[in-house]
Design goal:
The complex is a heterodimer of chains A (about 230) and B (about 220). In chain A, about 80% of the residues lie in helices and about 0% in strands. Chain A contains 8 helices and no strands. In chain B, about 40% of the residues are buried. Classes of the chains: A mainly alpha (about 230), B mainly alpha (about 220).
């Protein structure tokens, strides 16, 4: 073996290109997460209201995004939007839209779950001191729910970041797509380069997700200790 | 949307459907076995082994299946280890699912109330008896919701197998779209196919959850 595989990373601009790809991935995830969380919180609050039609529609929305795998969602939007609605969007925007809608669906369930697990006496006490519905949510339910839902939300964020690896399927120039190109271009010169390229991508994802799940795990543990210690 | 096109594509989708079910089943059973082993090792805090498995769990949980599959399918051959696409898919799914199942079981075991464990100790149960008669029966019941979510998650995750060209459902649809460009019809069949697998399953699992909830102590 004339060349060691690891050198493929330092050939030309390969390393910079991979990191830029990761940045693209990261940006799409970040925008989708922010939009998705905002919509998700609103939908989650709406789902605790006693309007059967609204609840039914939101439930269907949630179940659709739960049942259909993300790969399929990406393709649905990527193929159907331009052809049926004449809406031409680049892959990055389709991806952002799909991820945002998906985050919103999952988040609505997390928020609803947290809101209904705030003890009922909290709600009744709030009503008893004359809070209106907005005040009840604003000062009593939402602040307590946030604490309950934080670990689940962080876990959702790690899931979204992991799922961004699928972006290459709708031809977004993300880190995986660029990695593949580099592998193909350098296959002759560095037969074992593939190991290092995918190894680096593996590591990059791990470095982003691990701190997040560590944080979620710690919060969850603290909550369990509190719950057990009462 | 043309019904004729849908009808013609059904035999191919049927094959993909069976393959998706088959790979999911192996993946779920394999993951459950790996998960039980990991959670037992962690529960009994077997030295060294529990640290090793903790590293495995963190790696598996914090990296995407797609990259794991690429590693198995493209990078391993460069190191001299060649496997068929389906074998890579199964190994990848079990590698991923094992840690999720482990977290599910461990969550159940840790969720058993302290009072239960202390009462067990108070009546003189040893560590093994405590696990066998107090923690495991209640822990398994508590872990059912997480396991149910994992099962659905793993089935959906098989759609990623398309990247290493395993002809499961998603791959079948993409192939057909590539050939005939009838994306509406094929995507419709694809969504329906996943719905046929996942909707009944999620209903059954919800019913099961409800049943075992009464199985925990004090309800």
């Amino acid at each position: 073996m004339a060349h060691s595989g690891i050198n493929v990373l330092f050939e030309g601009t390969n390393l910079t290109r991979l990191l830029l790809g990761m940045w693209t991935t990261f940006k799409i995830a970040a925008v989708a997460i922010i939009i998705g969380l905002i919509i998700g919180v609103i939908l989650g609050i709406l789902r605790t209201f006693h309007n059967p039609i609204l609840r039914f529609i939101l439930r269907i929305y949630l179940e659709f995004f739960r049942i259909v795998p993300t790969v399929v969602l990406l393709f649905l939007f990527y193929y159907i939007l331009p052809r049926q609605m004449n809406l031409h969007m680049p892959g990055t925007q389709v991806a952002t839209l799909v991820f945002a809608l998906w985050v919103a669906a999952e988040m609505s369930d997390i928020v609803r779950g947290a809101l209904i697990s705030v003890p009922i006496h909290q709600k009744e006490s709030g009503l008893a001191i004359g809070l209106n519905r907005f005040q009840l949510y604003r000062y009593v339910l939402v602040p307590q729910a946030v604490q309950l839902e934080l670990p689940a939300t962080i876990n959702l964020v790690t899931r979204v970041i992991k799922t961004t690896s699928l972006l290459m399927l709708i031809s977004v120039m993300d880190v995986v797509n660029i990695g593949q190109q580099i592998v193909e271009a350098n296959n002759q010169k560095y037969p074992t380069g593939v190991f290092w390229i995918y190894g680096l991508i593996f590591l990059l994802y791990f470095l982003i997700d691990y701190p997040l799940s560590w944080w979620a795990g710690r919060l969850e543990k603290k909550r369990l200790e509190q719950a057990n210690g009462e | 949307m043309s019904f004729e096109i849908i009808k013609q594509s059904l035999p191919m989708f049927q094959q993909g459907f069976i393959l998706t079910l088959y790979l999911s089943l192996i993946g779920i059973v394999g993951s459950a076995i790996v998960g039980i082993i990991c959670s037992l090792v962690q529960y009994f805090k077997i030295p060294v082994l529990d640290k090793v498995l903790q590293v495995y769990i963190e790696i598996s949980r914090n990296t995407p299946l797609l990259i794991q599959l690429f590693f198995l399918y493209y990078a391993f051959p460069a190191m001299g280890i060649k496997m068929s696409a389906q074998l890579c898919g199964i190994i990848g799914l079990i590698f991923l699912g094992g840690s999720y199942m482990a977290a599910g079981f461990s969550g159940g075991f840790n969720g058993v109330s302290k009072k239960q464990v202390e009462s067990g100790k108070a009546i003189g149960l040893n560590r093994w008896q405590l696990a066998r008669y107090v923690v495991f029966p209640q822990g398994f019941a508590l872990s059912i919701p997480a396991l149910a979510a994992n099962i659905i998650f793993l089935i959906k995750e098989t759609s990623i197998f398309t990247v290493i060209a395993i002809p499961e459902l998603t791959n079948t649809a993409l192939d057909l779209i590539g050939l005939y460009y009838n994306s509406n019809e094929y995507l419709f069949v694809l969504v329906v196919a996943y719905a046929i697998i996942l909707i009944p399953l999620s209903i059954i699992l919800t019913l099961l959850e409800r049943r075992v909830r009464y199985g925990t102590f004090g309800n």
